[in-house]
Amino acid sequence: MDSATGAMGSLLLKLGELAMDEYNLQKGVKKNVEALRRELESMQVALRKVGDVPSGQLDEQVKLWAREVRELSYDADDVVDTFMLRVDDQGPEKQQVVGCSKGMVKKVAGCFAKAKARHDIADEIKDIMDRAREAAARRDRYKIDDAVARFDNGVTHPAAAAVDPRLYDFYRNEVELVGIDKARDDLVKALTTTTTEKKDGLFKQQLKVIAVFGPGGLGKTTLARVVFNRLKPQFDCTAFVSVSSAPDIKKVFKDMLLELDKNQYQNIHNLVRDERQLIDALRDFLQNKRYLIVIDDIWDIASWSAIRCALVENNDGSTIIATTRDFDIAGQIGSPHKLKTLLPKSSKKLLYGRIFGSEDKCPEELVEVSEMILKKCGDVPLAIITIASVLARTRNTADEWYKVYNSIGYGLGNNHDMKNMRKILSLSYYKLPSHLRTCLLYLSIFPEDYEIERSRLIRMWISEGFIHPEKDGDNLVELGHSYFNELINRSLIQPSGYGSCMPRSCRVHDMIHDLVRFLSSQENFVTVDGILQQTSPASKARRLSLQNNKLENSTAQTNLNMSQVRSISIFSSSGISLLPSLSSFQVLLVLDLENCYLTEGCHLDLRHVCNLFHLRYLRLYECNFDCDLLKEIEKLKFLQTLIVKREVRLPSTIVELRRLMFLHVHTDTILPEGMDNLTLLEELSLIDINKSPTFAKELRNLTKLRQLELFWGEMNESLEEALIESLRNLHKIQNLQILPFGNSSLDFIGERWMPSLYLERFVATGSSRFTIVPAWIRKNPSLLTNLTDLSIKLQELRQEDLKALGRLPALLSLRLYAGRSEFLLTCVGEFCCLRSFNLRSRDPLRLMFQQGAMPRVQRVLLSFHVQDTRDGENGDFDFGLENLLSLEHADVFLSRTTVIIDRDMEMERAKSVLRHAAQIHPNHPTLEIH
Fold first, then answer.
1. φ/ψ of residue 174, rounded to 5
2. Measured between alpha carbons, how far is 73 from 13 in angstroms, rounded to an integer?
3. CB 343, CB 379: distance < 8 Å
4. CA nearest to 756, candidates 706, 720, 796
5. Cα–Cα distance measured from residue 609 to residue 350, given in angstroms and rounded to the nearest whole number
6. 585 and 568 in contact (C-beta within 8 Å)?
């Protein structure tokens, strides 16, 4: 599925399958299928081109044509899905002869059912073909391709159609700017720190290239302009040029030459020069000069590569500043410099200054609501300035300001300033590849400020068909992770919920959320809290998301065609009564219910869930429902994801769900025998192997598992043997979490198992522990090249084991729980990648960080007992924190083992030593003592 092309991608694949002999279609029907596929392939190309054009630059006829073709693709996809389901449902497994006469009846009935399905598909393909021909005729009549070609050639580009809304701020006086001082000083410091090299016997200053990156609206261009003006006098020549999202590189070169020397190049724009001639002219001009050049608004590395050819490296201390929204591009340009949001006090000063002239003139009754508004703006200057413009035209009463606050995220109507802000932010959207646009728009199904779990989002993308393999052997989950990371790198989502120093979830800034919801509504991609407000019966809702329950006019419900809905997400019980029976949703792919109480008599009857034959994704999170809900689950032949976070009885027929990839159940769930039939499973949690005794042995056949979470209360020899044999067979396991709650040792895993080379995360918590560090780490840690996250409990932590851990080549996060430990010394050359170090000890801690140890560690957590120094255990509490050069945050938990006379004095002395270490640290890290 694709926001620009509808269901074209999956439909074309299915039409290819439909033409194959296994479906036994008549020759004439096959011919129609092939003709339809060719016509739709052409339309898909046209739709992609239309999708690249900002909606405001499209002719209304083009918009109508694109919407019609997308709807056609969805309808055709539903028809083909239904046909395939009907044929598959009468497949060989349904025709096995149980008794002679009964088997014959079943076989004859199956043949009739298939014949009728083929007759129906013939008629429906003909209808769709007629609609496709009509759409093709309108495409020619409306000259769709010509309209898009004009945009591609820059004739109707936004830059030519309207004034850039950023233009005024570009020329603002520096004294008018708020909160830019620290960002300016930090960038100036980075730029003026010289780097020299010896060349021809002389020391030369190297060319310095810094890329300022961050999301749209953060003030990158403003900062670059301020720094540019500040540093100009120090250089022989300077230029400030913008690239934009649709760059004309020759114009960029000409602009650069004109800025460098207005006299010499005053007529440059009237001269015909190719790129090579312009590059040569720039290199000749800059060859022996100390120059400062700002390249603003870079959107792709190809543009930067062309520009970089013209910027000669002459060892005269020249400087290049670039701005971009993309972290990956920033890293390829030069030294990345992340622009942060405003400090809260600067945000307040900016808001009040724009509205009242100064901060102290804000009426008392508006202080509370203004702080709520600022929180929504997320300390982003563009958002604050936009909302300030709205508030400045609003009466200064709390009621009016609360109305504005409640409107944020809902577009504030057709407000001019909101439109301008959307134009700026939407540049990032239209520069995305088509598949990422679709994934971004899908985020509108989630409420504002919602923390979106990474794995959940990827599963939903897969179920909706948004992720397509780029080549044979591609794993959909891994592709999904790359999509997620790319949206982060492009500053469109904000990472959160870190684990292994990697984001496990994300949030969407309210202003991006507003843009995504606006675009999603325009494309009829997701309908949010407005399923009863359809303006036209012809406008079919494809995805429903009930979030805020502000629906009122229930009589309008008849305008909604429920048979077209592919996804339903509900985030609370209220609002469920606004939906019809689940049986109305004939092509539903995704059903995601959260915090819904679905008890007997509830309007939304989940007993129909097993009749949703197309369902790919079912998530029931913190929902109350009948534990026998899934007794006919075998009907859900296409189900890929099943997540049920409450006790439920899984029927034995669950093992017939051969397409199941992700299964997450409640800890009290008992798995039936035969789980080894689910050979496509990639994720499985949270399984109590004591309650499902056959599972430990069956696990060995689930060879595609990447993520597995197990726990147990008791462990015996036979269970150990079965579990070890199974773990040895999981060659693709990446994330293994074991949560044993008994008192048994984990040494059988430490000594008798060798993990796969794919292992990225190993977590063993609970009450059981290893005696010492597992042998598969001690013997050859260099083999575990992908292990980034390790959390284990040990009876004893030895110095030699700590050194082995330090040789893990990719380790980012380490959590150790030690009953006792030797004196521990971390040395230079160990833990080279580590970002987070967590060590908890039941005894007094004897630890020293050597100078230069753990060079990239940013966070440290230490937990230990404080004893009287007369015992000689804690020494002077000097752990060498000041030697961790990248340290940003330290948490230290102190506790007492015995009641001693000077216990308060000893605790205070420990705190004093720790505070001193933080004070003398060059980074002045945050220290929290608990």
1. -60, -35
2. 12
3. yes
4. 706
5. 52
6. yes
Interacting residues of 912 by C-beta distance below 8 A, sequence separation 6+ = none
Mean pLDDT of 73-87: 83
Largest CA distance in the chain: 100
Q: Helix (H, G, I), strand (E, B), or coil: what is residue 686?
A: strand
Mean pLDDT of 50-72: 84
Q: Residue 393's CB: how many other CB atoms inside 10 A?
A: 10
Joined tokens for residue 175: 């004294």
- Indicate if the alpha-carbon torsion angle 688, 692, 698, 702 is positive or negative: negative
The alpha-helical segments, DSSP class H, found in 360-415 are: 367-377, 381-392, 398-407
Averaged over 386-410, what is the pLDDT?
A: 83
pLDDT tens-digit profile of 437-476? 999 999 999 998 899 999 999 999 999 999 988 888 889 9
What DSSP letter does each residue of 431-494 carry, written as one string?
TS-HHHHHHHHGGGGSPTT--EEHHHHHHHHHHHT----SSTT--HHHHHHHHHHHHHHTTSSE
pLDDT at 654: 94
User: β-strand 662-665 against 683-688: which pairing, if any?
Assistant: parallel
Beta carbons within 8 Å of 93's beta carbon, 6+ residues apart? none
CB contact at 8 A, 720 and 700? no
For 547, 584, 624, the CA distances from 570, given in Å and listed in that order, are 6, 16, 14
First to last CA, the chain: 51
Give the per-residue pLDDT at 97: 37
Collapsing DSSP to helix, strand or coil, 662 comes out as strand
Q: Which is higher by pLDDT, 897 or 25?
A: 25
Residue 543: CA count within 13 A, CB half-sphere: 30
Asked if residue 832 lies in contact with residue 862, where contact means CB atoms within 8 angstroms, the answer is no
Buried b (16+ CB within 10 A) or exposed e, 192-208: eeeeeeeeeeeeebebb
The H or E element that residue 79 is part of is: helix 60-89
Q: What is the pLDDT of residues 210-266, one digit of tens each?
A: 999 998 888 899 999 999 999 999 999 999 999 977 788 999 999 999 999 999 999
Q: What value does the mean pLDDT take over residues 813-833?
A: 92
Classified as helix, coil or strand, 560 is coil
Angle between helices 510-522 and 434-441 (to 10 degrees): 110
Query: Which pLDDT value is given to residue 28?
Result: 84
Measure the CA dihedral 726/730/735/737, to 10°. Answer: 0
CA distance 442 to 325: 21
